[in-house]
């Protein structure tokens, strides 16, 4: 029978039955793929439980402090931390296996993320009835030992920032440009910065935001054009399906990318994108994000290579992001403008973005360390995965 011949009655029924079976199989395959890719359930499963279980430990159990610490903002969700527990002391350690490679050659982002974890841990210490003594370790003694927090019984202090810990998520959706940020938001955010060592520089006018947009997009293009940096930025930490999310419990998921819902469904159902496709999609999202920022802020310090100053910056950022969450605003760190200068430095290239950053700060005594945008959300941001507390606690 040629392919053009009509099938006989029996043959046609068989063909139809076959087609039905193929369709059911396709539907089943689709349903299986939908299930395995997490199309239907956003941010569900054990990898997301730490957001719901963060207060499951008995009050006063030092593990309760670590449960809060691991929910901190941290670059690429690499979670570069370990917590070594002693009787009345918690030691915060760098986990060098979670380094971001060419994206963070000098550990800037790693240390800011560790500062964020430290801030959550200290907020939780107060809420769990502890006073504390914080000691930041000099790098010279034990390079991975970042800080120790000694705990003493004290009054219980549960702040609104502490309560906002499970509400804080990075929001990569476009922000609502019909609403402007009230002056009081800037004042409140500045009040959280009790560190002389950290300065907040704001970019609020349309002209300032447009030039930040241009610089961020240019730096993102430069990252994409650098094969190693592009890989470290994109596919290395991308967790595309439920299995890889549950296996790693870290990294960036499609749900958190700030894409429109139908695009997320399509991205989950289609084969994984090439590096080039995902790079292009990333640049498009940077434009949309930068274009809808209510304001940009840069956190600057006197010595951008000093770990203690980076930790302080991470603490201030975490505090600011918690305040933003508690006040129903939205924020997203945007660090291409720092990742590119670090890479220029690493490779000995012309400091194109390094110079651009210095110009933004306008003061040779201060160095830009971290950039974010803030605004009114158009939609809530979903949770990102986290490793279980037991995976980050060590006793040795
Ligand atoms: C130092 C640092 C740099 C970051 N850079 C970016 C960035 O350039 N773009 C972005 O979308 N998110 C950035 N983030 C946000 C993290 O990706 C985010 O905190 C992480 O994926 C965990 O998600 P969560 O904040 O929703 O808990 C950064 C966070 C930190 C602490």
Can you give me a brief rundown of this structure?
With 396 residues, this protein is an alpha+beta fold. The protein folds into 2 domains: 132 residues, putative nitroreductase (tm1586), domain 2 (NADH Oxidase, 3-Layer(aba) Sandwich); 206 residues, NADH Oxidase. The chain is built from 15 helices and 11 strands.
Describe the model.
With 396 residues, this protein is of the alpha+beta class. It has helices at 9-36, 49-52, 62-69, 108-127, 160-163, 183-191, 206-225, 227-233, 242-248, 261-269, 275-291, 307-326, 336-347, 352-361, 389-392, and strands at residues 81-85, 89-94, 130-136, 145-153, 198-203, 238-239, 252-253, 295-301, 330-333, 367-375, 393-394. It folds into two domains: 46-166 and 384-394, NADH Oxidase (3-Layer(aba) Sandwich), CATH 3.40.109.30; 170-375, NADH Oxidase, CATH 3.40.109.10. The chain contains 15 helices and eleven strands. It has a five-stranded mixed beta sheet. Strands 5-8-10-9 form a four-stranded antiparallel beta sheet, sandwiched between helices. A two-stranded parallel sheet has the order 6-7. α4 (108-127) crosses α12, α7 packs antiparallel against α11 and α7 (206-225) crosses α13. Flavin mononucleotide binds at residues 73-77, 109, 112-113, 116, 169-170, 172, 252, 332-336, 370, 384.
């Amino acid at each position: 029978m040629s392919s053009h011949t009509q099938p006989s009655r029996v043959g046609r029924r068989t063909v139809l039955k076959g087609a039905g079976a193929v369709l059911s199989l396709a539907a089943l395959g689709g349903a299986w793929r939908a299930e395995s890719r997490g199309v239907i359930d956003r941010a569900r499963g054990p990898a997301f439980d730490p957001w719901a279980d963060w207060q499951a430990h008995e009050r006063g159990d030092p593990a309760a402090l670590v449960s809060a610490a691991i929910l901190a903002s941290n670059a690429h969700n690499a979670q570069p931390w370990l917590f070594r527990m002693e009787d009345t002391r918690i030691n915060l350690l760098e986990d060098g296996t979670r380094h971001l490679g060419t994206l963070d050659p000098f550990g800037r982002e790693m240390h800011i993320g560790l500062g964020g974890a430290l801030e959550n841990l200290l907020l939780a210490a107060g809420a769990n009835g502890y006073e504390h003594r914080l000691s930041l370790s000099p790098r010279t003694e034990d390079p991975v030992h970042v800080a120790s927090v000694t705990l003493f019984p004290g009054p219980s202090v549960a702040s609104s920032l502490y309560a906002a810990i499970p509400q804080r998520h990075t929001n990569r959706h476009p922000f609502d440009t019909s609403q402007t940020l009230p002056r009081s938001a800037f004042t409140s955010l500045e009040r959280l910065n009790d560190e002389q060592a950290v300065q907040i520089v704001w970019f609020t006018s349309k002209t300032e935001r447009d030039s930040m947009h241009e610089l961020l997009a240019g730096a993102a293009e430069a990252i994409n054009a650098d094969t190693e940096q592009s890989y470290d930025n994109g596919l290395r930490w991308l967790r595309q399906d439920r299995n890889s999310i549950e296996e790693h419990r870290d990294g960036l998921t499609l749900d958190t990318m700030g894409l429109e819902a139908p695009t997320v469904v399509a991205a989950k159902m289609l084969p994984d994108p090439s590096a080039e496709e995902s790079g292009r999609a990333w640049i498009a999202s940077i434009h949309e994000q930068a274009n809808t920022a209510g304001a940009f802020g840069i956190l600057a310090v006197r010595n951008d290579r000093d770990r203690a100053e980076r930790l302080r910056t991470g603490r201030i950022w975490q505090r600011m992001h918690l305040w933003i969450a508690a006040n129903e605003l939205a924020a997203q760190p945007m660090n291409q403008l720092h990742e590119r200068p670090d890479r220029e430095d690493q490779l000995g290239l012309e400091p194109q973005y390094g110079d651009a950053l210095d110009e933004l700060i306008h003061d040779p005594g201060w160095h830009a360390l971290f950039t974010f945008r803030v605004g009114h959300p158009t939609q809530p941001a979903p949770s990102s995965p986290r490793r279980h507390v037991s995976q980050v606690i060590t006793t040795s």
